[in-house]
Amino acid sequence: MRRVLIWSILTAITALVLMGVGYWAYWNFFARFQPVTVTQNQAEIQQLLDQSSWVSDGSGGQPVYVVGWRDSAALDRYLREEAPRLRAGGAEPRFIVFARPDREGAPQSTAAERSTVAELWLTRDWRLFQRWTSTPPRSWTAQGVTPADGNLAREAVVEAARRFDARLTELLAPSGVAMAHPLVLWRDAQGFLKACACAEARAWPFVRDDLGAPDRVGDPGAAPVADAEGASPMAYPDVTGAPQPAPGAAALASPSAQPPGAGTLTPAPPRGSQTPPGQPRAAPQPKKQDDATFF
Fold first, then answer.
1. What is the pLDDT of residue 191?
2. Which residues fall within 8 angstroms of residue 154, CB to CB, at 6 or more apart?
3. According to the model, what pLDDT value does residue 9 have?
4. Do the Cβ atoms of 152 and 118 come closer than 8 Å?
5. So what's the pLDDT on residue 28?
6. 23 pLDDT exceeds 80?
7. Alpha-carbon distance 143 to 225, whole Å?
8. Residue 49's closest CA among 172, 150, 152, 147?
9. pLDDT value of position 228
């Protein structure tokens, strides 16, 4: 009886451990990367997104808001890899950038970054955003952009962008959205507002599936495009090794191409050929050399 009780306890403990490991694996590798449906403050969040100074290429389509700061490897990769897939699926990525505030007196942004953020919020210049994101953050000098430091109006714009991110964090917290950047927000097919903390690339496929975007853009192994209708096929190459006639050789060899009045040349009989029967043999012609004459 005691042995049965011990084995029952060990079996129960093993089952609990396996259930715990299984739940942790499900949450760690799948559940925590799924988008979150926003259940509270939807109207205020949407109003906040609409009033922000987002930038896009103007391609149109379903709006997808991407919030982040420039000096971020996750945002760089999202711009390079995921934004083209979203556009191919009919969505319009709208980027909202901000400069991170100082932490314990240490700045987390550069003067060039703050100046560019202010310029983008004021002008929403897509070409400037392209130049900025195609340049390494440490090499960006914001040449030609009005400095924000020391300019009260532009400093206020930089601070407004920071307040936007802070307020968005407060509004999303009751829905259980883990704050990580880039933060992606969109409306699904039923009109529900969804959010994804897309710092991890493993969360991106869920967004693509919800928006109907492809996993790849272009196929490098696709077959070449066929020739246009009516185009003559390419001639099959001559592999026999026979020399090809030069252009116009056939026309020159034709009798009709001979100049007027030109006679027809009779080919000489081959050397060593015999005279046909019934015809007299031609007499030999004398050949004179320096010392004698031979027939």
1. 92
2. 115, 118, 119, 122, 146, 147, 148
3. 78
4. no
5. 53
6. no
7. 44
8. 172
9. 37
> Quick one: average pLDDT of 110-133?
96
| Token pair belonging to 70 | 């420039």
Output the pLDDT for position 159: 97
Is the CB of residue 183 less than 8 Å from the CB of residue 22?
no
Distance, in Å, from the CA atom of 90 to the CA atom of 63, rounded to the nearest integer, reads 9
pLDDT of 112 higher than 90: yes
Place of tokens 């079996």: 11
DSSP string across the chain:
-HHHHHHHHHHHHHHHHHHHHHHHHHHHHTGGGS-EE--SSHHHHHHHHHHS--B-----SEEEEEEE-SS-HHHHHIIIIIHHHHHHTTEEEEEEE-PPPPBTTB-SS-HHHHHHHHHHHHH--HHHHHHHHTS-GGG---TTSPP-TT-HHHHHHHHHHHHHHHHHHHHHGGGT----SSEEEEE-TT--EEEEETTSGGGHHHHHHHHT--S-SS-TTPPPPPPPTTPPPPPPP--S-PPPPPTTHHHHHSGGGSPTTPPPPPPPPPTTPPPPTTSPPPPPPPEE-SS-EE-
Length of the chain as a residue count = 295
Both structure tokens of 170: 């407060």
Tell me how far apart the alpha carbons of residues 283 and 181 are, in angstroms, rounded to a whole number: 112
Amino acid identity at 79:
L
Confidence class of residue 231 from pLDDT cuts 50, 70 and 90?
A: very low
